[in-house]
Amino acid sequence: MTFTRLSRLIRRVFVSVIAALAILWAAAAIWIDGPESRALAGTLAGGLVLLAVTAALLIRPWRRTLLAVFVPFALVLAWWLMLAPSNARDWQPDVARLPSATIDGSRLTVRNVRNFDYRAETDFIERWETRTYDLDSLVGFDMFISFWGPTLYGHTIASWAFADGRHLAISIETRKETGEAYSAMLGFFRQYERYYVVADERDLVGSRTNHRGETVQLYRIGGDMGNGRELLLDYVKEINTLAEQPRWYNALSHNCTTTIWQHTRALGSSPRLDWRLLANGYLIDLAYARGTVNTDIPLEELKRRSDITARARSAGDREDFSEVIREDLPPRPRARGEPHDQP
């Protein structure tokens, strides 16, 4: 076989695999996001696969086969992209209210900050608050990573520290309807609206350690607080946008970690895309390599000392929850010209 024929064969195999994956995705999209009737959705999804297989077996030449396969895929994709998210559904109580914010000079006022009192994961006293923060008093930016099982993947939570000792935590999550549960598979389709949980750390972190049985690590992030301020303002911009114009959550492109990367990218300070942004259980390995977390101690020791699970459980519902979980935490990396100990 000549090199030209071999390269042509490889190209055909590659394109055929892409076409097969495209049809399988389209069938899954019809089944998951299509008609509520399972019989109708199954018929449409199965019919699409049958059509593609028939085209592959009967239509020649090869380019016409591809056209016959990609046309129905394109039609399904066009329909799927037109599916509209909504803010008007029967939401679960913990995501029932949309946060919003206003800025007056350096004064940031956030409405619907969640500060629930939990007796169990789904048993709580609702408390939605309006809080005001002085952006000029921003002194730190921190990152939580919460693990519910295997450590390849986790959930990331951003938190901003202010000079008065308060912290504003924001978690990018799915907005679930009453009776709805999260599914990693469904997260790749258009099943969940995107939701920014703006909350007290005692609520957002404590509910995970104390009632969900998750393991949580907390890392102080280094860098210029001007960048931290701009990042918070970009979050606020998106929060206000979602209050008016809902958007879909996506487990790949718009999840708890890749969306943070997109926020930093919008500010023009985002590092290049890295596989550890997707397998975010290794996110701190990436941060350690880039020097944005404390590198004065070995990485494994940093992870061990950053595990705040036991301290969070001992703190319970105490008002000084944020202070307690930061006891003995490795210090924040120094920015140029800063003293060694930073909040």
Q: If you had to describe this structure to a student in words, what would you say it looks like?
A:
The chain is 40% helix and 20% strand. Strands 9-8-7-6-10 form a five-stranded antiparallel sheet. It has helices spanning 3-33, 38-58, 62-81, 201-204, 206-210, 225-244, 258-266, 283-290, 299-305, 309-315, 321-325; strands at residues 100-104, 107-114, 117-120, 123-125, 128-134, 138-147, 155-162, 167-175, 193-199, 215-221. The protein is globular and about 70 Å long. Helix 1 packs antiparallel against helix 2, helix 1 runs parallel beside helix 3 and helix 2 runs antiparallel to helix 3. The longest helix is centred in the N-terminal third of the chain and has 31 residues, at 3-33. It is α+β, with helices and mostly antiparallel strands and 343 residues long. A hairpin with a 2-residue loop joins strand 3 and strand 4. 29% of the residues are buried.
Helix and strand arrangement:
Blueprint (H helix, E strand, L loop, with lengths): L2 H31 L4 H21 L3 H20 L18 E5 L2 E8 L2 E4 L2 E3 L2 E7 L3 E10 L7 E8 L4 E9 L17 E7 L1 H4 L1 H5 L4 E7 L3 H20 L13 H9 L16 H8 L8 H7 L3 H7 L5 H5 L18
Antiparallel strand pairs: 1-2, 2-5, 3-4, 6-7, 6-10, 7-8, 8-9
In what order do the strands lie side by side in the largest sheet? 9-8-7-6-10
For the largest beta-sheet, the strand count, sense and barrel status come to: 5 strands, antiparallel
Please count the helical segments. 11
Rg from alpha-carbon coordinates: 24 Å
- End-to-end CA span: 67 Å
